[in-house]
Amino acid sequence: MSETMLELEGVKKGYNRGKPSEVLVLRGATLSVAKGEVVALVAPSGAGKSTLLHIAGLLDVPDAGTVRLGGRAMGGLSDRARTEARREEVGFIYQFHHLLPEFTALENVMIPQLANGAPRAKAEARARELLEKVGVGARAGHRPAALSGGEQQRVAFCRALANAPKLLLADEPTGNLDPATSDQVFGVLMELVRATGLSALIATHNLELAARMDRIVRLSAGAVS
């Protein structure tokens, strides 16, 4: 059996805890992603997929349950240790690219590497390599406003992979693109993931895209099936 990269066990999360307005979003969610496996997370709007991804990526803390990355339990870590684990282990992609508008495509991909202590020359070489792989190498010197939606999202993919994470978490990564561009850009993402042997949990409402992944899990009523 393959080793597990991500494990969520009995994860619960609510908001406005202890108040009459309390909302339980996750009610004991359990799932696992093996090393090198690409899993589609399918859920209706408002079901809590973003909350689940934030907990999996150490951006949020569950009220109960266990989160493990590479077999290591993440509960009880200090804020600093959680930040370090997230920076070293996890890459994030969102529906909207969130690129920094004042920086070029190349600089956007360099920034997370520089923040992680990489020498500038190494960060630039890595950024150029990734941008070439996704077909936007010639656009490296352009700022986001000068790029198409598909190009912006490709740059966002590169930024997420810049620090060579072991786990990729994506929240509707092509949801802001038209169908033709979405299909093309998703193909680029899958090529990147397969080439690097990443584990990935990708939330999408597009069942055609979900079918191209290794496995589909569904989030409903706060639980995963």
UniProtKB/TrEMBL annotation:
UniProt signal peptide: none
Keywords of the record: ATP-binding, Nucleotide-binding, Transport
Pfam families (alphabetical): ABC_tran
Segments forming domain ABC transporter: 6-225
UniProt-listed Gene3D superfamilies: P-loop containing nucleotide triphosphate hydrolases
Family label: Belongs to the ABC transporter superfamily.
Protein name: ABC transporter ATP-binding protein
Source organism of the structure: Tabrizicola soli
